[in-house]
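User: Sequence in, structure out. Go.
Assistant: Echoing your sequence, followed by the structure tokens.
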Amino acid sequence: MFNQFLKASRVRVLPVMLIPVALGALGAYVWNGVFHPFLFVITMIGAGAAHLFSNMINDLWDYYNGTDTAAQTTDGVIPTNSGYLTKGTWSIRAFAAVTWGLFGIAAICGVILSVLSGWLALVFGILGTLIAYFYVAPPIQFGYRGKGYSELAILISFGILPVVGAYFVQTSQLDYRALLLSLPIGLLTTLILFNHHFLHWQADKQAGKRTLVVVWGERRALLFSRVLLALAYFTLVVCVALDALPVYALLALPTAIPLYRVYGRLSTRNDSAAYVPLMGASVKATIRCGTLLIAALWIQGLV
């Protein structure tokens, strides 16, 4: 059951949430000389549970909406869901119970942090939960609308909220540098979620899920994907220029090179399988860049 839970919740992508939390906490340590280990641990647990809840509620509503079933039955499409609902591995009731159990853990952590650090910590958590739920749930379903709402939501929930929120938990205050620090990692995570739509955009179109890949087509969507990559690393340079990161954080720039090379192997129209390396390179670039930014802040804090 535990191994099934790991697959159902897609634990392997948890670093894309934990890295921003670590960056926000390190920002508090470097800029303010403040670090509370207990608050950091509770923040990591809450953010991690919220991320896994987001993954599973996405699967649950995509199953209800028929998107995941279309992905399983459309030729040449690579499904990105766990398959536990479409294949009947778990019942809907069991899947929903685990999903809302994760929400409960995140909510408890949010309440603890709001008591210890201030009510704004709970606001960050509630906003993140609303984004996660209504990404796919009616009546809003902004992840289905194809107007860039979903990309903005990912930037907020995987960049701004965890970085600024983790900083606030440590200091009980806000700082423009935390917002700046959230942009490189937030945009890179947005790139991951954007690129994963290439794997099953035909099935999304069939199910009525209007992602930007569906709306724009492969050629324009690939161009936007490159723009997101460039923007992410540009904001890294901006962070250095505005003292949100030390100058040696620029050593993270070469992490873009392997991902940039993958784009060169793609044409304007590709089979779904051709996008698997793009997804893999996107995840690696995000984790490598985020890890180097953590190291840069850690070194700055020690020096």
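User: And one key feature?
Assistant: The chain has a mean pLDDT of 88.
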